[in-house]
Write a structure and sequence with these properties.
The chain is mainly alpha-helical. It has 18 helices and no strands. 70% of the residues lie in helices and 0% in strands.
């Protein structure tokens, strides 16, 4: 394959990434599905000499690319959520009820169930825990079909941005996630659980050298106090601090040259995510949590300003490009041998996770003392079922596995790569096929309920 053919394939793929979201909007096919299949087809072609797609060999590159892609997605998610959060407000905590339930109950239940299943199928305890931690978090990158669309502004009298007209702002009305608790729950969950899965990946790495559960006593308390709690708190504080400082400059600086919101310079979002991640890593917090917290803090400043939409658009375009690269490479790797170690155990774990374990964990967490459906943060039975089911697996799983494999040499690493890759493929196909019809059904149902309400 010549370099010219590589350029041709890359150009066609980028064109598809640009047009597929609008072309496929009416169909039960996601852009991720098309790009993954396209990558698998490309992988069947002869590749240039020296081009390696073995994730074990190129693990450092996989870790860095997936890490940055997740960071970009998390900043986008933080900017996209319209529902505000005020930590001193009981109403705000209640409106975020689905998020806390999915994080505090659904994710640990999913980690535990996958780990126990893997252990029962013959995996070592550390490998089973790593598999559970890597596959548990929902993905902020590949779940766009079931997430909020982006920041909405409610100020029709505000000056038009260069990209939008004031008429569009008027037509937007109430922010989309204020009534769509399914999309809000899945978006906010994806924004936080990537960082909150990190302590369990760390636990697997700590458990691996000892080879047994008896070693937990030597590191368990420190892990509980620092890795599970301390680093999360530090990460949140770092993200809020950086986001607050940048927001003060961008919106309220006494010097006009620093008021980037007036200039409409959207690259602040990229500067913010890189700066936040660096600060968080330096002070010992979880960078994923920090970047999401920074995005939320930036959005909280001048919430209805059109500048948020400009920043989100830049982040979204970069995320789409990075996702294109990863999906193409993953698809190519699938037809070049990454599924070579897949056996019946991996198939069972993937099917169980996507079709049983995550839906069951999500259902239990959301229905236990359920919040009334007519209140913000409340979900009806059908909305609960959709929220529980659409736990999309994706790029976060690749990052966690590559990170852990860099910290310790797991004997089952190649098998885990095959299992994780197959799980992502299954999730992309199943969730990508069902997302459009299910979300449209729920939207029509919500509209009918709104019409039926008394004036």
């Amino acid at each position: 394959m010549s370099i010219n053919l590589i350029y041709l394939i890359a150009g066609v793929a980028m064109f598809l990434a640009a047009v597929l979201p609008s072309v496929l909007d009416r169909y039960a096919v996601s852009a991720a599905m098309v790009l993954l299949v396209l990558g698998m087809v490309i992988g069947l072609l002869p590749l240039p000499e020296g081009m390696r797609l073995d994730p074990v060999v190129i693990r450092p590159q996989v870790e860095r690319v997936t890490e940055f892609t997740i960071l970009v997605a998390l900043m986008g998610v933080g900017l996209a959520i319209d529902r505000s959060f005020e930590w001193r407000s009981r109403a705000a905590w209640a409106a975020w009820s689905p998020t806390w339930r999915l994080l505090a109950l659904a994710m640990p239940l999913t980690i535990a169930s996958v780990a126990l299943l893997g252990w029962g199928l013959g995996l070592a305890p550390a490998a089973a825990l790593l598999l559970g931690a890597a596959l548990a978090p929902t993905d902020p990158v590949l779940a766009s079909d079931v997430q909020v669309e982006g920041p909405r502004v409610e100020t029709p009298d505000a000056p038009d941005s260069p990209d939008d007209g004031g008429d569009e702002d008027e037509a937007l009305g109430e922010p989309v996630d204020e009534k769509d608790d399914v999309r809000f729950a899945l978006t906010s969950e994806a924004g936080l659980n990537d960082g909150l899965a990190f302590p369990f990946v760390t636990a697997a790495v700590l458990l691996a050298p000892a080879g047994g559960l008896s070693s937990v006593g030597s590191w368990g308390l420190q892990w509980l106090a620092w890795d599970l709690v301390g680093k999360v708190v530090v990460g949140v504080l770092a993200g809020v601090a950086v986001g607050w400082g940048l927001a003060r400059l961008a919106f309220r600086s006494s010097r006009r040259s620093l008021r980037l919101a007036e200039q409409g310079e959207p690259l602040l979002a990229l500067a913010a995510l890189v700066m936040t991640y660096g600060v968080s890593q330096l002070v010992g917090g979880y960078g994923f949590v920090s970047v999401f917290a920074c995005g939320m803090t930036l959005r909280a400043a001048e919430r209805n300003h059109h500048y948020h939409r400009s920043m989100h658009e830049v982040v979204q375009r970069l995320e789409r490009l990075l996702t294109l690269i990863i999906l193409l490479m993953l698809g190519m790797a699938m037809t070049k041998g990454v599924l070579g170690e897949l056996d019946w155990r991996g198939v069972v774990i993937a099917l169980a996770l996507v079709l049983v374990l995550r839906p069951a964990a999500g259902w239990v967490s959301l229905r236990l003392r359920a919040r009334p459906a007519d209140l913000p943060g409340g979900l009806g039975r059908k909305e609960t079922l959709a929220t529980a089911f659409f736990g999309v697996r994706g790029i976060g799983s690749l990052y966690y596995l590559s990170f852990a494999a860099g910290e310790h040499a797991f004997a089952d690493e190649r098998w885990m790569w095959s299992t994780v890759a197959f799980t992502i493929l299954l999730s992309v196909m199943v969730h990508g096929t069902l997302a459009t019809p299910v979300m449209r059904y729920l939207e029509r149902r919500r509209e009918r309920a709104g019409i039926a309400e008394p004036a």
